[in-house]
Amino acid sequence: MATSREYPRRHGDDSVNPRSISEYSISQEQVTSFGQASSFSIDPAALHVERAVLEPQPLIFTWKGISYWVPVPKLKEKRSLQKLVRRKKVKESKAATVKEVEAERDLESGSSTEAPQPPPQTEQVAHVDAHSDAEDGELQLLYDVFGFAQPRRLLALCGASGAGKSTLLDVLANRKTKGRIAGEICVNGEPVDYSFLTHFMGYVEQRDLHISKQTVHEAVLFAARTRLPPGTPDSVAKQFTEYILEIMNLSVDRNRLVGSEADSEASGVISSDARKRLSIAVEYAANASLYFLDEPTSGLDARSALRVMRAIRALADNDCAVVSVIHQPSFEVFGAFDDLLLMRSGGRTVYFGELGDACTSMTSYFARNGAEPIDDMTNPADYMLRVIGGGIDSKRKAQMRDWADIWQDSQECKAALEKLEELKKTSRGRYTLTYKPPTRRQQWRRAYYVTIRQLISYWRTPTYNFSRMVLAVALGLMIGLFFLKLPRNNTALDSYVSVVYLSLLYGVFLIQNVLGPTFQERAAFYREIASGTYKPIAYAFAIGIAEIPYTIVGSVIFTLLVFFMVGYPAAQYGYFLLMNILFSLFTTSLGQLLAALLSSQVVGVMIVGMLIPLMNVFSGFLQPYPDIPHWLWWAYYADPYRWALEGVVVACVDNVAFHCDPGEFRFFPLPPSFNGDCSDGGTLNYYNETSASVCAAAGVTVANGSVACCRYCPVTNGRQIIEEFGLHANWKWIDIGAVAGFYALFRIANTLALLYIRHLNR
To answer: What is the domain range of residue 699?
Structure first.
């Protein structure tokens, strides 16, 4: 099996080149997969213009003496200390505890976000530190880790589960949302400003977080338009997009939908490895100088992993520095890297340096220091993990040599530290990064691109928009048929008012309907915000605009069915429609606000289940305002449902004539003051009843003479209903303004929530 250790050689070079394995493998795979080499080509003149505009800016990134602590509950820490005493192995148990906490953190680190911009020469130097402080309820996850990444080279972060690989990556990329970091991080020898460095850095998540309803081409073009330097011509962004699609081997998938991780390739979306290459392509579109990747090949088969490694190699070949966490790499994938940072449990370094030809630099280091030499049938990645005790239980590990201590005392460690200091000195003042912030007009341009993408995404989501159209038709027909052509007599009076109340149900249902799509996009939004793709206000504006056309169409369908089937006054339809549209826009804004505020969709559904009854209780329908306890008056006026309900009640009921059919009249004895004529009672719609039997049947005393008793119709004008519910007949347009005000208020609240709240735990 000696041939399994042979790497393809670079053209014109007789030496073995570990990184060229990806170039060779992918070029062969590309022909095998598609039957022929890609026919895509870029006009050299156009490409020359593109590279002139997108000239890379050299960048050297260094970090030294950094310590990272994560908070630990004190009770849990006490239990951990008790275990240490019982086992009488304080040092080993402490490392095991670190491993457990770090393993939990690795599971949580799946969703986060990225970082941004210009390209080439980048060198990173690090000295990352960490320890455990049980008294303060903190646990140290990284301990005295150092290293550097250089342009055109791939640095692999490897180690057993719980070694702190992803923790180190997050610390270097400023992705930590909790814990405490101490030390110094520099860019070109100066203290780092991550708000500035974001424009020169890319971060590829372990999870592939994209807007699922966009095509591959649209995703890369959107990233290029929003993340290239402000002022970059759109023609250059389009040309660069085509270049990236070819480099990332995504041209054949350019018009396929991205889909989500839950979608299968059979549904017409791209494959899992194509989605991973798209994640890299989106970061490549920023033309950054430094890239961080978190386990880009995890979950992929060998062939897919090679495709992804070719994409990563393309980043480095663009004069970029690349740092990637790799977990259990295959022989071919591991051979594509140039350098290695190997860590053991407890966040300590056991090796840093070049892999060497066929990984001989790394394997020979361990052999020189007492490890069993590697044989020709062993994957170097498996060999190094076995040597340092990866996957071995703590009892056996305690009997092994501590390779972290061996590394600290080695000549290789001293040489690496010397090179680190040299890089810091030579980079100081040598390079200058320039970035011109986008103007207000360019910011609006980005908001325009976000809005267009959101509108297209909504159009391609029939399960969401078609469902609410079906809801509008179904609910409208149900209400309209049930209350078809209601008579305007006193018996149907309650039904007449109830339909007005039900006419706002469509908007209420939209609160819960909007939760699903908004929660699904939230992770992609966090990734794009962290990378500086756009401002949160742009996304808040986009999701608000995208809802408007579908809300209007749904409201038109619903109101047409309900309004005319029930038989409301035709002259009031315009107002009825306007109020329904505004109220529906308000409810969708409320749903989007909940999605920004709450941690999960399950919690959102629960909150909506509590909010809807509360809105109904204080709307003034179930409990008219005169009957509401005085100390709750503020809840009545703070309820948006109350203002919408008052508006439609006044529009549909005010000055509408009602009548009493036989059997609906009320009777009372003829008062002596009426002088034998009930109409003398004034304008209260009193009528003379001449039939003594009718009066007697109603239990009313019969008077002598032609008039036996008096009768009256309880409700003859809709204004009486308005007064009974404590509503204001002259506030109809004030109600419109109030609902519009609530809509604007919740849009502002949604923007602030997107700006300041992040449901991330890294």
So the answer is: 666-712
